[in-house]
Write a structure and sequence with these properties.
The protein has 4 helices and no strands. With 171 residues, the chain is mainly α. The protein starts with a helix and ends in a 14-residue tail after the last helix.
Length: 171
Amino acid sequence: MSEKKRDVVTGMLLLTLSLVWMLIVWRTIPPGTGGGDVGPRAFPLLLGALLAVFSLWLTIAALGKRRHDAVTPGAERTINEPEAAGANGAAGLVAAILTVAHLLAYGFLMQRIGFVLATLLTVASIMLVCTNDRSPLRIGAMSVGITFACWLIFGKILGVYLATGSWINLG
């Protein structure tokens, strides 16, 4: 599949996902109580709208691209190009699988051990598995820093309810 086709398909899938997301949010989350309150559905709707805008942008940009598959005059294909394309495809598949696995594990851990520990463990796991960085200091600092920042901003400043665990409750 060419890069142009891949971008168009990805953009259209993300646009469809964003529209379905916004419909579900609109139908299931109640609006604000009036008096200038933003309400609980504002942030999920904003995220869905941003995804729709960016996916539409990706699709339009991909449709505007010219096809660069033709070999330019005087240029030769190297023997390793098909192998590199296959390696990039496999790497992309592995990255997608790891992303989904981390999201599923994060959701499971959030119910069992709560937001704070689940976020700490997930960030550390992503740093270990998905990056080439193996510095214990950097992994620890990123895990603690991101967890603390999210807890402070969402839990304390914005007053968002953060999940407490059924196994462990640091709440």
